[in-house]
Design a protein that fits this description.
The chain is about 20% helix and about 25% strand. It is α/β, with parallel strands linked by helices. It folds into two domains: about 220 residues, Collagenase (Catalytic Domain); about 100 residues, Jelly Rolls (Sandwich). The protein has a five-stranded mixed sheet, with helices on one face. Strands 8-10-15-12-13 form a five-stranded mixed sheet. β12 and β13 form a beta hairpin. α2 packs across α3 and α4 crosses α5. The chain is globular and about 70 Å long.
């Protein structure tokens, strides 16, 4: 009588909260769509992301666990990216609010989805000990999601052929206990093809799950060796995050009716300082045929604080922010290009 093969042993894995789809019109070119979607969940470069350790009757937050999270933030910032991270004691001030409910596993909303979604006021949760190597890797991984990174195994170019029945039975059992939809969305489903903005699959990425070889039908050698546990940022992780969030250049000064050029390259961001000479309603708008995100900040205690944003991606209209600004205050406008056809002139004006 044949014996059934044992279920492979797997780690408890992250199950990020579902991303909010970016609506795009029918007929948009695949290249334009992929360019928009690659940046759609990313923060404006130069944003200060405040994080807060939420307290709740359901969990405790030992300081040794907090230290593991702080260390992971420091690793990402150590790449000299343009984002800043700051811990705050005020949950209402935090873009990233972190729980430690051990019953739910580890997860995070992806990028700016944290601004629109929460689960019991959390935008991130850790579901196991963070003080060992796997815990430290988990902290890096979840912060990667918070910065806008997706699971690497779902990269269109990964080319993984799964033993699907075994994937479902393995992750439906301990330690993950996922339902079929969660398994499909977090392992089997492929992210939309990125066309000419495609990135190579990186099996060493911190965003790549480890998988035993029994779950993989192809390609070799992973169907013999499996995909290992990655506990550090890979070279490709570092290159990708530094391209999305490069070191910030000094902002240029802009005045009323002072047309300023915007960089047309994909992911390029232009930064401006505006100091209104009178208190009134202003319109900040992009000019030219492009998909652009405008983000407005005010300065408070020397730090940029989010005011509002507008993203015209996929629309025939230009991004436009209509807002009341105050004389004597200092404002920062960040304009990021999501897509522009070659040779097009782009600009920004304040009216």
């Amino acid at each position: 009588m044949a014996t059934q093969a044992p279920t492979p042993t797997v780690r408890p894995l992250c199950a990020p909260r579902a991303t909010v789809p970016i609506p795009l019109p029918l007929g948009i070119s695949p290249f334009r769509a992929s360019s928009i979607r690659l940046l759609g969940k990313k923060w404006a470069n130069g944003t200060t992301l405040r994080y807060h350790f939420l307290t709740d009757d359901s969990w405790q937050w030992p300081d040794i666990q907090k230290q593991a999270v702080r260390k992971a933030f420091a690793v990402w910032k150590g790449l000299k990216i343009g984002l800043e991270f700051k811990e705050t004691d005020d949950a209402s001030e935090a873009e990233i609010r972190i729980g430690f409910d051990q019953r739910e596993g580890s997860w995070s909303f992806v990028g700016i989805d944290s601004l629109r979604n929460s689960d019991r006021n959390r935008t991130m949760n850790f579901g196991w000990d963070l003080t060992d190597d796997w815990g430290a890797a988990t902290a890096l991984h979840e912060i990667g999601h918070a910065l806008g990174l997706e699971h690497e195994a779902q990269n269109y170019n990964a080319g993984i052929v799964w033993n699907e029945a075994l994937v479902y039975s393995t992750f439906g059992g301990p330690p993950n206990h996922w339902d079929p939809e969660t398994i499909y969305q977090n392992i089997l489903a492929k992210l939309e093809r990125k066309d000419t903005q495609a990135t190579r699959w990186d099996p060493q990425s911190i965003m790549q799950y480890p998988f035993p070889p029994q779950l993989i039908a192809a390609p070799p050698p992973y169907n013999q060796t499996g995909i290992p546990e990655n506990t550090e940022l890979s070279a490709a992780d570092k290159a990708a995050i530094c391209k999305i969030y490069p070191q910030l250049r000094p902002a240029a000064t802009i005045g009323v009716m002072d047309l300023q050029r915007l960089a047309p390259q994909w992911a390029a961001q232009s930064n401006f300082v505006f100091e209104p000479t009178e208190t009134r309603n202003y319109t900040i708008r992009s000019i030219g045929e492009a998909d652009t995100k405008l983000v407005l900040f005010t300065e408070r205690d020397g730090e940029p604080r989010f005011v509002t944003a507008k993203d015209d991606s996929g629309s025939p209209d230009n991004a436009k922010i209509a807002v009341r600004l105050v004389k004597g205050e200092r404002y920062i406008v960040r304009a990021r290009t999501h897509y522009a056809e070659e040779g097009k002139d782009l600009g920004l004006v304040i009216i």
